[in-house]
Specification:
Elements: E1 11-17, H1 24-40, E2 49-54, H2 61-71, E3 75-80, H3 86-96, E4 102-105, H4 117-125, E5 130-135, H5 143-158, E6 167-174, H6 175-181, H7 191-198, E7 202-207, H8 221-233, H9 238-266, H10 274-307, E8 314-318, E9 323-324
Parallel strand pairs: 1-2, 1-4, 2-3, 5-7
Antiparallel strand pairs: 3-8, 4-6, 5-6, 8-9
Helix pairs in contact: 9-10
Length: about 325
């Protein structure tokens, strides 16, 4: 395999897309100008490309991208069969672009500052194999999103995950990292936790988040909750240990309460106990149901992993040189 060129690397910009027809052509134009600017400045090699991954969009996103790819050889479009999810779409793009010297993943809405690309590449040239894009603040978020994001990162830290605070999926990875990722066959992908766990030399580039110029964010509350759940259950068994600890404490409480009740009975005191019994029953039921939910989440992960199904299926790849169906 050809050794990576750190001085003039081939860059593939990987962009997952899902129902982005309102902004995708504008974003594509901005990306094209930025990549060509880096090429003309001799920062990256002229064979660098922008690779869009259409993740089963139901609007006109694919047709717009396909038309752009047929007109300009800087664009490549990989269209997946159905909607596989953001993490799987990223994985599909990374695996497709695996021969590039470096890959930078970025969202299609360009809220992540594309002008930071050169800073990413400079960190790579200085020896970093992974460069994380970390937002300076969350001032562009609403109150609810700020609160949920803060809770998410605190929870991930408590659970022992190595997720970087305020880092989404705006990052650079080298071919060496991609080759390492190929060894991981797990179905439940959480790249924000997986890549830091590899241990490659890394650096951080800070950037400001821009306002979205059109469309709506595709990360709904349910998707964010699922991402958080995947992040926790894919990298730590701490929740299972918490269940064990809670069970032990509850057992001690039950023993103490039993002794207290027995002493009250011996003394002949009339204790109706309806409220106490009700509260204890509700408390124990809640603990049991929560414990079963957490255990079920891990069992579900095991069930999915044993199937060993592909993370994605490619419907077609479109570019100016060749079109494959």
């Amino acid at each position: 395999m050809k050794e990576s060129n750190r001085e003039l690397p081939v860059l593939y910009l990987v962009v997952p897309c899902y129902n982005e027809e309102e902004i995708i052509l504008k974003s594509a134009s901005v990306m094209r100008d930025r990549i060509r600017g880096l090429i003309s400045s001799h920062v990256i090699e002229k064979s660098s490309r922008i690779l869009f991954v259409n993740d089963g969009s139901r609007d006109n996103t694919f047709n717009l991208l396909a038309d752009a790819a047929r007109k300009d050889d800087i664009f490549i479009v990989v269209s997946l069969v159905g909607n596989t999810g953001h993490q799987n779409a990223l994985w599909a793009g990374i695996m497709t672009a695996s021969k590039a010297d470096i890959i930078i993943t970025i969202d299609a809405d360009l809220q992540q500052d594309i002008n930071a690309l050169e800073s990413f590449i400079e960190c790579y040239k200085k020896g970093a194999e992974v460069v994380y894009g970390v937002r300076n603040d969350r001032n562009s978020d609403g109150t609810f999103k700020k609160l949920t994001a803060l809770t998410y990162y605190k929870l991930m830290q408590v659970m022992g995950s190595r997720v970087l605070k305020n880092h989404a999926d705006y990052r650079l990875i080298s071919r060496k990292v991609v080759d390492a990722l190929k060894e991981y066959n797990e179905s439940n992908l959480f790249l924000r936790g997986l890549i830091p766990s590899l241990g490659f030399p890394s650096d951080i580039v800070y950037f400001d988040v821009k306002e979205r110029t059109g469309g709506e964010s595709k990360y709904t509350l349910s998707k964010m909750f699922r991402l958080a759940t995947d992040g926790i259950t894919s990298f730590t068994i701490t929740p299972l240990r918490i269940i064990s600890f809670t069970g032990f404490i509850t057992m001690l409480f039950s023993v103490g309460f039993s002794i207290f009740s027995f002493i009250e009975w011996i003394q002949g005191k009339n204790v109706p106990g309806y409220t106490t019994l009700l509260l204890v029953t509700l408390f124990m039921s809640a603990i049991i149901l929560l414990s079963l939910g957490v255990i079920g989440e891990y069992m579900g992960k095991i069930y999915i992993e044993t199937k060993n199904r592909p993370k994605y299926l490619i419907d077609c790849v479109i570019c100016r040189e060749t079109e494959e169906e």
